[in-house]
């Protein structure tokens, strides 16, 4: 699968409550990495130490978020047992592109509840598969 990159807004916790910040997001394989947007024009590198979060998609499922709940159009969440991460796109077309890119890499369908036992089994199977591919 081709990597996908682009600007998304990510909902985080700020000093005065929830806050949307613009991130450069890179999806490669089953890992979604978020980088802060540079204030100054600098050369961007995916190997940069400026990465501030990454998400292994095997632990998440995709869900579109209601505009009223997110207070932003074109929002979606990656949901796991312990947490949900909320992003927003700039258009409906972009949301459709990210939805396709993410759901094609997720192991859990959107309508399945996330179970810690299943998540651990999926993780072990993926590790065994990747080790077998290396050998």
TrEMBL record:
A Pfam family the protein falls into: PH
Source organism superkingdom: Eukaryota
Start and end residues of each PH domain: 1-107
Name of the protein this chain belongs to: PH domain-containing protein
The species this protein was found in: Phytophthora aleatoria
Taxonomy of the source species: Eukaryota, Sar, Stramenopiles, Oomycota, Peronosporomycetes
């Amino acid at each position: 699968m081709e990597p996908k990159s682009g600007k998304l807004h990510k909902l985080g916790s700020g000093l005065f409550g929830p806050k949307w910040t613009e991130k450069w997001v890179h999806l490669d394989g089953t890992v979604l990495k978020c980088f802060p947007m540079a204030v100054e024009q600098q050369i961007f590198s995916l190997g940069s130490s400026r990465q501030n979060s990454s998400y292994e998609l095997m632990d998440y499922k995709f869900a579109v978020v209601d505009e009223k709940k997110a207070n932003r159009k074109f929002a979606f969440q990656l949901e796991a047992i312990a947490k949900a991460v909320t992003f927003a796109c700039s258009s409906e077309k972009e949301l459709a592109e990210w939805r396709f890119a993410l759901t094609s890499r997720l192991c859990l369908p959107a309508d399945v509840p996330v179970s810690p036992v299943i998540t651990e089994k999926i993780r072990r199977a993926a590790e065994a598969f990747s080790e077998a591919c290396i050998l």
